[in-house]
Amino acid sequence: MKTRAAVAVAPETDLEIQELNLDEPRPDELRVKMIASGVCHTDAIIRDQWYPVPQPVVLGHEGAGIVQEVGSAVSGFEVGDKVVIGPSFCSACKQCLSGHPMYCEIFYERNFGVQRGDGSTAFSTEDGESVGSHFFGQSSFAEYTNVPAHGAVKVPEDAPLELLGPLGCGIMTGSGAVLNVLKPKPGSSIIIFGTGAVGMAGMLAAKAAGASTIIMVDIVPERLEFARELGATHTVNSKETDPVEAVKEITGGGAEYALDTTGVPQVFSQMTKSLGVRGHGALVGAAKLGTEAPFDIGTLLVSGITITLVIEGDAVPKEFIPRLIALHQDGRFPFDRLTKTYPFAEINRAFADSAAGTTLKPIITF
Ligand code: NAD
Ligand code: ZN
After folding, report:
1. What region holds the Enoyl reductase (ER) domain (predicted)?
2. C-alpha angle 30/32/35, rounded to 5°?
3. In degrees rounded to 5, what are phi and psi of residue 362?
4. CA 262–ligand 1 middle distance (angstroms)
């Protein structure tokens, strides 16, 4: 069949909306009619080749849509099911089998390889040139796409698909790092660096978990103001104030938990220093391959802190995404406040607004 899709053709260049051929779904796949897709910072860094993902490629990895066709070997899905699509994993390696599919031993190939295991891609041009597909098991910047069924998460019939796509990556990353990894105790303190969609999702999750001191750090005053509106108890503009000194003063010695969503080496360093004794910090922000961050061994050894590097919130999407939907329905996880929708034709404006910091979580609607 034919489908319109946004194709990444070169670094720092607008995506091109093209009409492509979409092949038949494989026995283990679903064909999904996309209703909406979030735009994540990771789409932008892959378009810009921070990681060497072959182009042309259809990006997009926060898709939500309706099942149109079910592969012959798939069970548990029917035509018409509403789905949110999460990353792809093998289901067979030690990490997958021990409940950590986001650390699947072939996670990189599955999600950044932009082809199936057999080397085929789902998309091709009129001239028969293949176009990368299966980005994060979905390539959701397309009206129709084929996805491995194991990554799809069925959601309730009345679920608002136009809102839910970001639960498959950005929102799952921030909230999962907090709820699945840091697990802040009620009444505890947490400092979060970066108030983008990932940091804000972490903040909403910390609030839902009952943390009572939530310190948000950024360099954009409007974002800090919005963080306060959504529940931050303290904000620090790290261009003006040293966040390490600020957190020590606010918490009387250092935070119990910390989250770095920036991927900036200096911020990682600040995060390690902002923790109190035996505190636990998590890094989710991405950086170019080879980026190193300073860590003060001499001073920090005695602090006994734990640092965890977290992919996709260390979630099991089929278990975690329905929980986030339930929390949202309860009014305890208002991530809809972070989103703004754009028609498919304006996808490059969505990328630009995200980069400029004026939109936290753009969602493309088809
Ligand atoms: P974003 O760009 O919207 O947010 C980043 C925020 O960090 C911005 O508000 C920015 O102003 C702030 N910032 C930048 N430099 C800073 C500094 N020196 N001090 C304080 N704040 C600073 O991005 P996002 O969508 O929230 O994503 C955050 C990061 O998470 C990205 O790097 C993204 O690629 C990554 N990510 C990782 C995973 C994962 O599985 N680990 C998944 C999704 C996204
Ligand atoms: Zn993402």
Report:
1. 12-364
2. 160
3. -70, 145
4. 4
CA of 40 to the centre of ligand 2 (A): 5
Judged by DSSP in three states, 208 sits in helix
Is the CB of residue 189 below 6 angstroms from any atom belonging to ligand 1? Answer: no
Q: What is the pLDDT of residue 238?
A: 98
Nearest to 45 by CA among 258, 267, 285, 266: 285
Q: Which CATH class is domain 172-311?
A: alpha beta
Pocket flag, ligand 1, residue 84 (CB < 6 Å): no
**Low-confidence residues of the chain: pLDDT under 50:** none
pLDDT of amino acid 79: 98
User: Tens digits of per-residue pLDDT, 326-354?
Assistant: 999 999 999 999 999 999 999 999 999 99
98: Cβ–Cβ under 8 A, 6 or more apart, which residues? none
- Regarding the beta carbon of 31 and ligand 1, being less than 6 Å apart is answered no
Domain extents in the chain: 2-168+334-365, 172-311
**What is the model's pLDDT at position 207?**
98
Radius of gyration, CA atoms only, the chain: 20
Residue whose tokens read 């136009």: 162
Give the strands of the sheet with 57-58, arranged side by side. 57-58, 2-8, 16-22, 123-124, 130-131
How confident is the model at residue 56, as a pLDDT? Answer: 97
Quickly name the fold that domain 2-168+334-365 has.
Answer: Quinone Oxidoreductase; Chain A, domain 1 (3.90.180)
* pLDDT for res 45: 94
Amino acid 192: pLDDT = 98
Is 25 in contact with 144 (CB distance < 8 Å)?
Answer: no
> Residue whose CA is closest, atom 30 of ligand 1?
285
Q: Give the residues across from 32 on adjacent strands.
A: 67, 145
Q: Is the peptide bond before 56 cis (omega within 30 degrees of 0)?
A: yes
Nearest bound ligand to CA 274? 1
Task: Say if 2-168+334-365 and 172-311 have the same CATH topology.
Answer: no
Would you give the end-to-end CA distance of the chain in angstroms? 17
